[in-house]
């Protein structure tokens, strides 16, 4: 009897040991699998917020470069080179006027039906407009219809990009863990630097492989046409996303607004206004360094186009470097201190524009371009979290997007043309003062805004 009890006890222990291993294995797999899926989901969200802005800003920047190099000659009558350049820069500015409208239109749907579908629609609008610009005949073929059609398509680019940034920033930050919104908000902020790098490399490659006549005839159109493939990739990635948790909760509680723009302008107009002014320094630094300096360097200083594009490729790496650094610091020390320090440095950088650019030295010009784009990344990165944090979830897409795009009108839309006029009337030194003035405005705006990093 005693031996039977011992045998039963041993057998029971072995069975329980087997069961323990079974449940331990399943528990381990469940936890590991959950962690793995969370990692994959987080990676997918970060990539989706990055890839969309990279593609849309690639589309936007190839136009900026084409405006500096060839748009005036292709789409406007050959009256005089200065008028062609000015007209090209004015078409460049049209998209910035359209961008706030895009922010309102796409923000309406983003705050009403969701971030996912709205982001896909904005990418599609941008992609179709860019493709059609690449296929549009010039002034020699269509006459006055060519610049009119170009302005309409450029307006379409602005509408599409107007709906992109706000949704991409929310996609990243509304999925972010506590204390890491600045870091997650950095991924859509990386998109512009990568998009610009690919845009610059595409024009650099064309400049090296094609003759000047081939480039003006058809070469400049190739980046516009190839963007259709990139848009297809972006749409595929975004259609596989889920809705953000914060907006899904608002949607489930039926706390959305029928017309989000109304409560936004009624209750949150101050952060829209201050947010727009805070963005001025980012835009002004970037488009002064890339569009104006590219035009001035190639047409006035006589620097070969491939050489100047190589210099911009080097400079944009500094923007890519400063973006994650600034985002990380904004999570640690707060958004306002990082943004105010960066804007103050940009004020000083404006005084360096004239001596470095006027020197004609490739090294000194590259130094200024690198400094400007480094500070652009530093002032830009925290905005991915800072602007959305200024608004409640139900109006966040519209509010953050509108502030961002209004900043584009103030800081970038006519920055190249204003800089051109300043050079014509007073010289390069006034362009430097212009950059410093825009940076000072942003410094004051951020100082007036509330800190949000700890919310």
The overall strand count is 0
Q: How far is it from the N-terminal to the C-terminal residue, by CA? A: 69 Å
Largest sheet: none
Please name the CATH architecture: Up-down Bundle
Average pLDDT value?
Answer: 84
Give the topology string: H per helix, E per strand: HHHHHHHHHHHHHHHHHHHHH
Number of domains: 1
Low-confidence stretches: 5-11, 13-40
Count of separate DSSP helical elements: 21
Write down the CATH class: Mainly Alpha
The percentage helix is over 70%
**Shape call:** globular
Structural class, judged by helices and strands? mainly alpha
Sheet-strand content, in percent, reads under 5%
Our Rg estimate from Cα atoms comes to 25 Å
Structure in words:
With 455 residues, this protein is an all-alpha fold. The chain has a single domain (55-448), classed as MFS general substrate transporter like domains (Growth Hormone, Chain: A). It has 21 helices and no strands. Helix 3 runs antiparallel to helix 20, helix 6 crosses helix 19 (396-413) and helix 14 packs parallel to helix 17 (362-380). The chain is globular and about 60 Å long.
